[in-house]
Structure formats: C-alpha cells, structure tokens
Amino acid sequence: MTNHAVRPGPRAAIGEPPARRLLLVHAHPDDESISTGATMAHYAAAGAHVTLVTCTLGEEGEIHVPALAGLAAAEADQLGGYRVAELAAACAALGVTDHRFLGGAGRYRDSGMLGLPTNDHPRAFWRADLDTAAGQLVEIMREVRPQVLITYDPNGFYGHPDHIQAHRVAMRAAELAAAEGIGPDKIYWTALPKSVLAAGLEAFGTSSDNPFAGVERAEDLPFGSPESEIAARIDATDSGAAKEAAMRAHATQIPANSWLHSIARNFGAESLGVEFYTLAAGGKGPGTGRYGWEDDLFAGLTTPLSPTATGPTATDDVPGSAGGAAGSGAAPTGDSASAGAGVR
Ligand SMILES: [Zn+2]
C-alpha cells in the first residue's frame, strides 16, 4: 500500500515536485503517529511532500495483543517484521506515502530501554556509527531536499536511547547536508508545553486511565517545555481523526484502553490534533499570540512554496475528518501579541 523501498524522488504529480517538503526522523514505528501524526497528516493533505524515516523496527517493544505475545524478542523475535506492517497501515491512515527505514529495514535494531543488555546488540541503533547513520540520512536528504526537518531534542524527548540517537543522527545529517549546500532551512524538535501537560493532569484527574497517576504537578514530569521555548503550535485538529486511526494501527504497542485513545474518547479526536515544536535551527517565522508561536512549520521561509490548495496528490484516504473544531482547549493562545524574539 505504501512505497517503502524505492521511490523515484519527491512526489511529482505533473512533473513538478511539491514545493513544501517535510522530513521526519523517528526512532520506532508508532513514534511518528503519537508525537507528530497530526502534523504529518495535515501537511500531506495540503499537498506537501512528507517523508518519514524510521530508524529501527521496534523489536523490543512490549506487546499488548495477547495472541501476538509469541512474536516478542525473547520468543520468536518477529515483532519487528510485524511492526513494519503496522507502520504501513499507520502511514496510510496519515496519508503519508513516502516512508523509509534508515539504512533499509532491519539495518538498525531497537536498543531497548537504557541500561538493558539489548543496548549491546551488534545492530542496536544506540551503537550505530554516527557518521555512517547520518550518511544514510543525507542520501535521503539529497533526494528529497526537505526545507523542514523534525526530530527529537537532545534527550530524545524522554530519554530512550534510540530517541537520543535519532536526534544525534538527524542533527549530524543536517550538518553534513548543510556542508553540501542542501541542509534543511529549519529544524524542529518535538515538544509539549508545560501548560498543556498541566491541563492534561487536571483533565484526567483521578480517572483510572490517568497516564500521570501519582504526578501532581507538570513540573515533576521529565519532559515539557516552558511556553517561551515553544516556537510553533500546529493546529492540525482537522487531522486528529487520522492521528487516532494511525495510533490504532499500532495495536501491538498502543492498547485500545490506552490513555492515548481515551484522550480522543473523552475530548474528541480533534483534541489530538494540536502539536508543538521548539525551533533548533533556522529563523523563526512570523507568529501570533502571547509567545509569537508560528502556526506553520514553513513560516518565514524564503524558498518558493506552493499554494496550499489541495493539489492532485492530496490524500483522500485519510479516514474521517474531525472538522474544524476550534483549538484543543488545552493550549494557551495568548491574545496579546508580545514579541517572541529569541525563542529557539
Ligand atoms: Zn520510540
């Protein structure tokens, strides 16, 4: 259903590649959907070329489908292959047709959580030679020529070794590509404002599926950024349903009773559709609100960009559309336009 291995290049509908090209580098299948799924679906639907690079097959993941428990790394060790199919289904739900595995499927193995013996597997991504892995990503950059790159912050958002390594590889690749004159114009890192986390804590409260049970204050969570450090708030509420469908495609990893799904059940799928980023490189474009947040990852780029009209390659296979519900309710969009200067 998706072209995994061989692609002729950026999607060329009538000769011309889409003007807006977005590259995402993620560690495992499911990360793309959970942290950036709405952004991916939003830009794909608007005719941008969205390229997803996944660095491992996620072989070490927990399995939440009892009938598939035998696929586990310690059993048949078939989870990675199974997750290739889950990822393909997720990409279809997101309307993303350009997906690759870094170095080809199976080149790098899920390293497992930090400190486990799986970190030392010969193919563990954590042990990957940085320049080799970055070189594989540069090859993709030469072909796709993305203006915007999305990956994680130096802590991999939450500290998983493969996420940290994905950050390192993506940043090194951007550096190498820049030396060739083809580096991305902007680099974003996934982020969550502390205020959104605080609102989530409050919203879930004492419910049984509160993912933060026992946590009283957003400040106590190991992730989350001050509002002033956020550069972009992407309102992709129109793609919240696509994100929810993509997460459902990762059934071995995200059980049906997961709090990720209960967000959609309790607050509407569109509430999944607001995603945040910090800007790691490139100039911040014009923004709005108290913190001057950009509402478009391509904001301020001087590269000629296409109109955002739904072009001939716009997806029509994104299941459902949440419609234009206003905002997530969780994100503070201040209305006094103060300078967002210096936000990185
Ligand atoms: Zn992951």
Quick overview of this protein structure:
The chain has 344 residues and is an alpha/beta fold. 28% of the residues lie in helices and 11% in strands. The chain contains 7 helices and 7 strands; from the N terminus they run βαβαβαβαβαβααβ.
Write the layout of secondary structure elements.
Blueprint: E1 21-26, H1 31-45, E2 49-54, H2 79-94, E3 98-101, H3 130-144, E4 148-151, H4 161-179, E5 186-191, H5 194-204, E6 232-235, H6 240-249, H7 259-267, E7 274-281
Helix pairs in contact: 1-2, 1-6, 2-6, 3-4
Bound molecules: zinc ion (ZN).
**CATH architectural type of the domain at 21-195 and 222-281:** 3-Layer(aba) Sandwich
By DSSP (H or I, 4+ residues per run), the number of helices equals 7
CATH hierarchy class name of the domain at 21-195 and 222-281: Alpha Beta
Shape verdict: globular
Q: Averaged pLDDT, please?
A: 85
Q: Major beta sheet, specifics?
A: 7 strands, mixed
Q: Runs with pLDDT <50, length 5+?
A: 1-12, 306-344
Lateral arrangement of strands in the main beta sheet = 3-2-1-4-5-7-6
State the helical fraction: 25-40%
Instruction: Give the topology string: H per helix, E per strand.
Output: EHEHEHEHEHEHHE
Q: How far apart lie the N and C ends?
A: 38 Å
Helix/strand-derived category reads alpha/beta
CATH topology category name of the domain at 21-195 and 222-281: Rossmann fold
CATH superfamily of the domain at 21-195 and 222-281: LmbE-like
Q: What is the CA-atom radius of gyration, in angstroms? A: 19 Å
Strand content: 5-15%
Number of E strands: 7
The distinct bound ligands, ions and cofactors come out as: zinc ion
Cofactor: Zn(2+)
Biased composition (Low complexity): 328-344
Region (Disordered): 302-344
Keywords: Hydrolase, Metal-binding, Zinc
